[in-house]
Amino acid sequence: xxxxxxxxxxxxxxxxxxxxxxxxxxxxxxxxxxxxxxxxxxxxxxxxxxxxxxxxxxxxxxxxxxxxxxxxxxxxxxxxxxxxxxxxxxxxxxxxxxxxxxxxxxxxxxxxxxxxxxxxxxxxxxxxxxxxxxxxxx
Length: 138
Fold this sequence. Notes:
Elements: H1 12-25, E1 31-35, E2 41-44, E3 47-50, H2 53-56, E4 67-71, E5 81-88, E6 94-101, H3 109-124, E7 135-137
Parallel strand pairs: 3-7
Antiparallel strand pairs: 1-2, 1-6, 2-3, 4-5, 5-6
């Protein structure tokens, strides 16, 4: 089985599979993933939303800090914090960004930074059990 590949040109399907693995691993909190050349995908409650407003907030991850806390001022999760990280390729270029939306109010930036390496290791070994998911445009 082919694993999702994350690059600056990843397909929406690969982003959705990647987001699903993180979503399930972190207690099903909403997850947004965006590459440099895509509109991005949000998974929330097991449903995939293409080009969600939350994904637009990840655009800021392509410059500045590699990890940051972003206050969501629009979209379904307006008022929540998103903890975002740049995804780097092997030469250190920012090719994508991922954000976890703290709908439970339990995350801190320090905790997010500490858990980033553990999350990356676990996602790297993930294999999908069920390939069914819903894609919808917002």
